[in-house]
Predict the 3D structure of the following.
Amino acid sequence: MRRRTVTAGNLDEIVQVTAPAQVSEQASATPAAAPPRVEDHGLRTEFEFELPRGYVDDEGTVHRHGSMRLATARDELRPQIDLRVKENPAYLSVVLLSQVITRLGNITDVHAGIVERMYATDVAFLQDFYRRVNSEGHTRAAVTCPHCEGGFEVDLSGGRLGES
């Protein structure tokens, strides 16, 4: 087995080289009018959330609702070669979150600069949300009422109270 040194510059090249080859003959044989068949395997890959405070953009608009996708192995590996993470390991969560957040309000290009400017409470919420989604596969948490000590589940994705 051949080993390669991976740097930030050649990671995309390595992924393209090692990806399964596209068969152009099959693509030309498939009629253009037929949409590609998407099989539903019951795997939920994107999760909606609502930030506790919200991200305030340069125009003063508050963005609270967003979505996060499941992380891939590449998402977990890529920050390890990021120079900002090498200089400051605490920056790992900023880079990782910027890769898996697919939407924040009407912002679809979520990058590390946006995550950097979020309030600490929102970043902590997103870190916990990431952990729940990627390790447990859901956004529910078991809680106990402090008054009656009754146990129940809540959905941390941020639905409004009273909705089901």
Confidence is low (pLDDT under 50) at residues 21-31, 159-164. The first helix runs from residue 11 to 18. The first strand starts at residue 46 and ends at 56. Helices lie at 11-18, 24-29, 73-77, 83-87, 92-100, 112-116, 120-136.
